[in-house]
C-alpha cells in the first residue's frame, strides 16, 4: 500500500475505534473517573484520615462481602435479571454457621461447606423458577429474600457472637501490607492490613472478570442479556445460561455470606440488611445496565468503592451517618440510572460492521 | 330422579361460572384460611364487645384485627393495582413513602416542637399537605418510569433507599408525639362507633375508586397501555401520561395509609413504620388474580386479596409465629401463587385437567 | 456492502435478507424469492433483470376476480376544489425523504412499492405516529398541526396499521373494547361510553362487517386474523373519518374477506370518504385506486393515474429505469 493509503487507513481505524466505544466501556470510564474524583477530592479537602492507606484498606475490609455479592448481582443483571435475595441469604448463612459452630461444635471447614450449600440451594431453586418456568425474577427473588430472612429467625431467634476458637482465629487473621502503615494515636507504627475476606473478594473479582471476558459462557451471558431472541439465534441455550447465572449468583451469595460472617463474627437476623440494594446500586454505578447485555466486573468493584467512599466522606463531614448515607446513595443511583437511560437512547442500533467484522475474524 | 338433576345442574353451573371469574381466586384463598382456622381453633372467629379506656364500646377479636389492619393494605392495593396494570411493574417504595407521608403529618401538627401541648394546625390541613407531598413523590417515581423508561421496581428502588432517611430528616430525627385525642380517632375508634375507623376510611376509598373506574376511562386506558402501549398510542392514548397518573394515584393512597398509621400511635418510628408493607401490597394484587406483568385487572379482587393477606398474617400471629419469621411463610405463599399463574405451568395443568375431566352427564337420564 | 464483498472474497457464505433492490444487485450472486409463505424460485442475479425480479416478488393474484368497479359509482365532486388532506415537504424521523401529498374527497389513492420502500413510514407521518421533523399539513385548505395520533384523529383521520398484532389489536381486551377504543379516546377521559352505548356500537359493526366471534366479550386475541382485521376496521369506521388510511388491510387474510374489504373501500369512497390503500398485491391496488404513488428506497419515485395504471407501468416504476 502507498504511504498515503497507510495513513488514511490508520486514521480510519482510530476514528472507528472511538466511534465504536461500547456502552460498557463508556459507563466504566465514567464510574472510575467519578470514584477517583471523589477520593482525591476527599484527600484534598478532608485530609487526615483519607491520606492514610489504611482508610482504603478499611473500605475493602468492611466491604469484602459486598464486593462478592455485587459481582454476583452484576452477573445476573448482565443476563437481564435481578436477584434481591442476596442480603437475606447472607444473613441466613451467618446465622446457620454461627449456630453450627457454637451449638454443634463444628469446624470451620464444614461451616464453609454449609455456606456454599445454602447459597447453591437458593441459586438452584430461584434459577429453576426464573429460567425454566419463566417467572419474573423480581418476584421470585423477593420471595427468596423474605424466605431467607424468615428462616434466619427460625434457625435462631436471638443474635449472638461466635465463641468458637478456630473461627475466631480465622477471623483475626491479618494480611500485612508492607510499607503502607501509619502512625496511630499512641505514636506507634501500625502496619496496614487487609482481612482474608478481601483476598477472597479480589480472587472472585479476578475469576469472574476472566470468565466474562474470555470464556464462552461469559459471552453467552452478554448475549442473553442483550436479547433473548438474538442469543437463541446464535445457538445459545438461553434457559441454561440464565440458570447458570442464578446458580453462580447463589454460590457467590454463599461465599459472600461466609466472608461477611468472618467480618462480623456473629449471627443476627438483621445482618446484611439492605445489602442487595447496595449491591444493585454498586452494579449500576459500576456501569451495569438493568436492561442487560452491558456490564463490567471492574466497574462493579469501583461501584462498591464509590459507595463506601461516600459513606466515609459523609461520616468525616460529620453528618448524621445513618440517614444521610441513604440519601446520598439514592442520589448517586438516580444520577447513574438517568445517565444509563440517556446512553441507551443515544445508541440503539448495533452496527452491522461490528458484527460482520467479528464473524470474519473468528473464522481465521 | 330426573327432577333432582336440574337443581344439581344449576348449582354446579353456578360454581363453574364463579370458578372462571377472577375474583374466585381470593375467595378460594379466604375459604381455605377460614377452614384452616375453623379446624385449628374456632375461637379465632369470636368477636367480643368490650369497652376501651375512655369508656367507649369497641369490638375486638381476630376478625376485627383483620378488618382494621387489612384496611390500610386495601387502600394501598388500590394504587398498586393501577400501577401494576399500566406499567407491568411494582412500586417497592410504598413503605418508605408512608414513612415520609406520616412524618409530614406529624411535622405539620407538631411544628418545630416535638412534644407540643396543642395542635399547630388543623388535622385536615396536615392530611392535605401529606397528600401533596406523597403525590409529589409518586410523581417522581412516575417520571422515572414514564419519561426515562426505567423499570418500575428499579426506579422505586431509589425512594426505597432514601425514603426513611428523608422521613427522619423532615422531623430533624426527632420522634414527635401528638397529644390530641381527636387525631387518634382515625387510627383506632371514633367514640360511640365500635367498628375501627380505618375500615370506614377504606370503605370510602373503595367507593371512590369504583366511582372513578365507572365514570372515567381510567380502567380502560390503564389496561390498554399495560397490554400494548404501541397500539394504545396509535389509538390516540399517551402511555407516559397514563403511567404517570397511576403513580400519582398510588401516592394519594400512600398518604391515606400513612395518615392512618401515624394516627394509630400518634407518633412515628422511622425504620419500623410500614416495614415490608410493599411485599403485602404486591401479594394482595397477585392474590387478586391480577397479572404482575400488567394489563387487565380486577380492582375488587385486589381489595379482597388485601384482606386475605391480612387474614394470613393474623392467622400466623395467632399461632405465635414471630413477626420476623412471618415473612418466610408469606414468601412460600407468594411462590406457590406465582408458580401456579405462570403460563407454562398453566398449560401443563390445563392439559392435565382436560385428561381428567369427567364426562358430561348423558341426557337420557339415569 | 464493502464488508460483505470482503467477506465473500474470503470464502464466507452469506445469506442476505433484504427488501432493497439496489443492495441485492450490488452484492448477491443468487436470489431465492419467497411469497405468501411459498417458494417462487431460485435465480442467478446476472440472468434476472430488475423488472422480472419485481414481477416474481409481487406475483399475480391467484383468484380470478372480476372487475368490482361496476358495483359502486365514483364520488362526484360538487364544486369543492380544496383537497381534504394536503401535506407539503412532510418529513419524520423514520427515514423517508420529505414528500408532498394530497388527496381529494372520495378519492382512493395508493402507495405501492416493495416492503421497506417507505410506504408505511409515509402514512405514519401523515397520522403523526412518528416524530414529525418538518413540513406543513392542511385539512380542507386550513393549516393544522398534527404531531401525534390524537391530533390526526381529532381532524378526522384514521389509520389501520400494517402489523395488526403489534400495533393494531390490544390482545387481552374484548372485541367490544377494541372497537370502541379510538372513538372513546377522542371523546375524552371523563366521558366513558355507557354499557348500552358500547354494546350498540359493537353489535352494529359485528353485524355490518360479519365479524365471527363467540360474543362481543371475547378477547380479540382469540379471533382469526381476518376477523381481527375486521375489528380494527370497525374501530376506525366508528370514528366516521374524513380520511382513512389502510396499511396492508388484506395481508394474511382469507380471500373472501379480501374481496369484502376491497368492495367496502369502494363503497366508502363513493360516499365521500378519502382513502389511502396500501398493499403489496398490485392487483388489489389496481382494482380500488384511482391514483398510485410509487415508492422505492424511502423516496417517492413516481405517480401513476388514468391510463398509466397498469401492472407493467407499476412494476417498471418500482424497478427503476437504469440497471447496472
The name CATH uses for the topology of the largest domain in chain C is: Rossmann fold
Tally of discrete structural domains of chain C: 2
* Radius of gyration of chain C from CA coordinates: 21 Å
Helix fraction bin of chain A: over 70%
Please provide the count of β strands of chain A.
4
The general outline of chain C is globular
> Termini separation of chain A (Å)?
22 Å
Q: Which structural class should the secondary elements of chain C be placed in? A: alpha/beta
Fourth CATH level, the homologous superfamily of the largest domain in chain C:
P-loop containing nucleotide triphosphate hydrolases
Helix content of chain C: 25-40%
The percent range for strand residues of chain C is 15-25%
Describe the structure using short key phrases.
heterotrimer, B: mainly alpha, ABC transporter involved in vitamin B12 uptake, BtuC, two-stranded antiparallel ribbon, disordered C terminus, C: alpha/beta, Rossmann fold, 2 domains, globular
Structure write-up:
- The complex is a heterotrimer of chains A (about 375), B (about 375) and C (about 325).
- Chain A is mainly alpha-helical and about 375 residues long.
- Chain A has a single domain, classed as ABC transporter involved in vitamin B12 uptake, BtuC.
- Chain A contains 15 helices and four strands.
- Chain A has a two-stranded antiparallel sheet with strand order 1-4. A two-stranded antiparallel ribbon of chain A has the order 2-3.
- In chain A, helix 3 crosses helix 13 and helix 4 crosses helix 11.
- Chain A starts with a helix and ends with a helix.
- With about 375 residues, chain B is mainly alpha-helical.
- Chain B has a single domain, classed as Orthogonal Bundle (ABC transporter involved in vitamin B12 uptake, BtuC).
- Helices cover about 70% and strands about 0% of the residues of chain B.
- Chain B has 15 helices and two strands.
- Chain B has a two-stranded antiparallel ribbon with strand order 1-2.
- In chain B, strand 1 and strand 2 form a beta hairpin.
- The longest helix of chain B has 27 residues.
- Chain C is an alpha/beta fold and about 325 residues long.
- Chain C folds into two domains: about 45 residues, no CATH class; about 240 residues, Rossmann fold, CATH 3.40.50.
- Chain C has twelve helices and twelve strands.
- In chain C, the strands form three sheets. A six-stranded mixed β-sheet of chain C has the order 8-9-10-5-11-12, sandwiched between helices.
- About 0% of the residues of chain C have low confidence.
- At the A-B interface, helix 6, helix 12 and helix 14 of A face helix 6, helix 12, helix 14 and helix 15 of B.
Amino acid at each position: 500500500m502507498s504511504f498515503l493509503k497507510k495513513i488514511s487507513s490508520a486514521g480510519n481505524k482510530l476514528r472507528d475505534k472511538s466511534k465504536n466505544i461500547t456502552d460498557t466501556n463508556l459507563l466504566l470510564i465514567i464510574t472510575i473517573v467519578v470514584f477517583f474524583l471523589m477520593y482525591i477530592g476527599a484527600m484534598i479537602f478532608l485530609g487526615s484520615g483519607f491520606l492514610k492507606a489504611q482508610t482504603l484498606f478499611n473500605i475493602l475490609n468492611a466491604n469484602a462481602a459486598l464486593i462478592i455479592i455485587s459481582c454476583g448481582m452484576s452477573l445476573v443483571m448482565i443476563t437481564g435479571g435481578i436477584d434481591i435475595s442476596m442480603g437475606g441469604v447472607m444473613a441466613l448463612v451467618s446465622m446457620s454457621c454461627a449456630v453450627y459452630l457454637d451449638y454443634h461444635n463444628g469446624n470451620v471447614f464444614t461451616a464453609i461447606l454449609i455456606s456454599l450449600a445454602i447459597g447453591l440451594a437458593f441459586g438452584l431453586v430461584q434459577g429453576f423458577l426464573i429460567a425454566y418456568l419463566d417467572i419474573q425474577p423480581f418476584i421470585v427473588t423477593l420471595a427468596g429474600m423474605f424466605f431467607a430472612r424468615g428462616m434466619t429467625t427460625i434457625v435462631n431467634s436471638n443474635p449472638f457472637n461466635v465463641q468458637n476458637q478456630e473461627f475466631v482465629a480465622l477471623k483475626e487473621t491479618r494480611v500485612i501490607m508492607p510499607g503502607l502503615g501509619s502512625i496511630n494515636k499512641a505514636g506507634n507504627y501500625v502496619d496496614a492490613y487487609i482481612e482474608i475476606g478481601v483476598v477472597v473478594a479480589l480472587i472472585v473479582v479476578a475469576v469472574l472478570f476472566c470468565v466474562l471476558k474470555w470464556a464462552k459462557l461469559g459471552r453467552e451471558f452478554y448475549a442473553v442479556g442483550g436479547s433473548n431472541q438474538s442469543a437463541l439465534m446464535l445457538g445459545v441455550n438461553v434457559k441454561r445460561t440464565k440458570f447458570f447465572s442464578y446458580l453462580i449468583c447463589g454460590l457467590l451469595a454463599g461465599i459472600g455470606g461466609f466472608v461477611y460472617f468472618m467480618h462480623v463474627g456473629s449471627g443476627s437476623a438483621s445482618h446484611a440488611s439492605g445489602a442487595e440494594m447496595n449491591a444493585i446500586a454498586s452494579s449500576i454505578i459500576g456501569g451495569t445496565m438493568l436492561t442487560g447485555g452491558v456490564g463490567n466486573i471492574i466497574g462493579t468493584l469501583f461501584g462498591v468503592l464509590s459507595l463506601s467512599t461516600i459513606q466515609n466522606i459523609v461520616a468525616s463531614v460529620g453528618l448524621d451517618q445513618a440517614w444521610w448515607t441513604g440519601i446520598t446513595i439514592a442520589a448517586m443511583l438516580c444520577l447513574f440510572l438517568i445517565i444509563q437511560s440517556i446512553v441507551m437512547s443515544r445508541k440503539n442500533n448495533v452496527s452491522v460492521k461490528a458484527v460482520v467484522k467479528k464473524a470474519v475474524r473468528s473464522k481465521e | 330422579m330426573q327432577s333432582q338433576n336440574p337443581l344439581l345442574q344449576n348449582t354446579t353451573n353456578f360454581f363453574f361460572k364463579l370458578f372462571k371469574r377472577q375474583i374466585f381466586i381470593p375467595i378460594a384463598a379466604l375459604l381455605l384460611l377460614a377452614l384452616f382456622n375453623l379446624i385449628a381453633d374456632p375461637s379465632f372467629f369470636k368477636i367480643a364487645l368490650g369497652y376501651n379506656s375512655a369508656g367507649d364500646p369497641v369490638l375486638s377479636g381476630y376478625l376485627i384485627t383483620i378488618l382494621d389492619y387489612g384496611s390500610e393494605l386495601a387502600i394501598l392495593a388500590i394504587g398498586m393495582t393501577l400501577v401494576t396494570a399500566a406499567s407491568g411493574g411494582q412500586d417497592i417504595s410504598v413503605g418508605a413513602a408512608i414513612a415520609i407521608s406520616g412524618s409530614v403529618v406529624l411535622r405539620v401538627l407538631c411544628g418545630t416542637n416535638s412534644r407540643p401541648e396543642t395542635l399547630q394546625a388543623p388535622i385536615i390541613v396536615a392530611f392535605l399537605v401529606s397528600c401533596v407531598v406523597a403525590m409529589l413523590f409518586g410523581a417522581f417515581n412516575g417520571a422515572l418510569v414514564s419519561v426515562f423508561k426505567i423499570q418500575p421496581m428499579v426506579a422505586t428502588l431509589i425512594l426505597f433507599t432514601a425514603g426513611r432517611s428523608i422521613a427522619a430528616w423532615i422531623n430533624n430525627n426527632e420522634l414527635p408525639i401528638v397529644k390530641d385525642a381527636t387525631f387518634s380517632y382515625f387510627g383506632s375508634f371514633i367514640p360511640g362507633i365500635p367498628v375501627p375507623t380505618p375500615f370506614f376510611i377504606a370503605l370510602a376509598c373503595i367507593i371512590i375508586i369504583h366511582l372513578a373506574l365507572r365514570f372515567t376511562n381510567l380502567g380502560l386506558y390503564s389496561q390498554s397501555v399495560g397490554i400494548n402501549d404501541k397500539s394504545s398510542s396509535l389509538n390516540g392514548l399517551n402511555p407516559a401520561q397514563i403511567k404517570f397518573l397511576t403513580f400519582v394515584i398510588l401516592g394519594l393512597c400512600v398518604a391515606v395509609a400513612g395518615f392512618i398509621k401515624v394516627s394509630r400511635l400518634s407518633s412515628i418510628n422511622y425504620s419500623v413504620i410500614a416495614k415490608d408493607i410493599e411485599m403485602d401490597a404486591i401479594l394482595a394484587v397477585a392474590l387478586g388474580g391480577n397479572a404482575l406483568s400488567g394489563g387487565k385487572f380486577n380492582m375488587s379482587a385486589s381489595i379482597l386479596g388485601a384482606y386475605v393477606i391480612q387474614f394470613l398474617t393474623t392467622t400466623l400471629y395467632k399461632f405465635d409465629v414471630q413477626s420476623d419469621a412471618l415473612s418466610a411463610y408469606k414468601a412460600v405463599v407468594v411462590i406457590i401463587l406465582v408458580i401456579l399463574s405462570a403460563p407454562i405451568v398453566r398449560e401443563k395443568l390445563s392439559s392435565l385437567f382436560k385428561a381428567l375431566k369427567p364426562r358430561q352427564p348423558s341426557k337420557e337420564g339415569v | 456492502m464493502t464488508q460483505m464483498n470482503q467477506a465473500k472474497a474470503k470464502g464466507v457464505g452469506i445469506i442476505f435478507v433484504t427488501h432493497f433492490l439496489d443492495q441485492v444487485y450490488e452484492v448477491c450472486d443468487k436470489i431465492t424469492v419467497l411469497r405468501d409463505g411459498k417458494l417462487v424460485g431460485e435465480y442467478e442475479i446476472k440472468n434476472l433483470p430488475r423488472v422480472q425480479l419485481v414481477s416474481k416478488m409481487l406475483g399475480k393474484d391467484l383468484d380470478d376476480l372480476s372487475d368490482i368497479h361496476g358495483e359502486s359509482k365514483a364520488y362526484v365532486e360538487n364544486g369543492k376544489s380544496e383537497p381534504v388532506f394536503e401535506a407539503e415537504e412532510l418529513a419524520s424521523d423514520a427515514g423517508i425523504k420529505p414528500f408532498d401529498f394530497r388527496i381529494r374527497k372520495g378519492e382512493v389513492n395508493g402507495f405501492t412499492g416493495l416492503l421497506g420502500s417507505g410506504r408505511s413510514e409515509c402514512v405514519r407521518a401523515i397520522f403523526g405516529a412518528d416524530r414529525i421533523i418538518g413540513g406543513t399539513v392542511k385539512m380542507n385548505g386550513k393549516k393544522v398541526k398534527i404531531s401525534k395520533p390524537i391530533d390526526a384523529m381529532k381532524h378526522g383521520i384514521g389509520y389501520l396499521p400494517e402489523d395488526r398484532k403489534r400495533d393494531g389489536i390490544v390482545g387481552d381486551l374484548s372485541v367490544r373494547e377494541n372497537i370502541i377504543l379510538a372513538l372513546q379516546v377522542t371523546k375524552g377521559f371523563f366521558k366513558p361510553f355507557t354499557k348500552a352505548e358500547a354494546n350498540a356500537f359493537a353489535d352494529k359493526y359485528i353485524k355490518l362487517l360479519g365479524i365471527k366471534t363467540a360474543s362481543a366479550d371475547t378477547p380479540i386475541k382469540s379471533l382469526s386474523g381476518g376477523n381481527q382485521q375486521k375489528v380494527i376496521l370497525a374501530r376506525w369506521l366508528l370514528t366516521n373519518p374524513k380520511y382513512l388510511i389502510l396499511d396492508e388491510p388484506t395481508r394474511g387474510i382469507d380471500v373472501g374477506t379480501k374481496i369484502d374489504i376491497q368492495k367496502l373501500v369502494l363503497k366508502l369512497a363513493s360516499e365521500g370518504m378519502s382513502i389511502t390503500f396500501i398493499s403489496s398485491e398490485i392487483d388489489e391496488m389496481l382494482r380500488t385506486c384511482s391514483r398510485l404513488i410509487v415508492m422505492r428506497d424511502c423516496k417517492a419515485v413516481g405517480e401513476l393515474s388514468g391510463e398509466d395504471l397498469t401492472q407493467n407501468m407499476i412494476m417498471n416504476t418500482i424497478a427503476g429505469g437504469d440497471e447496472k
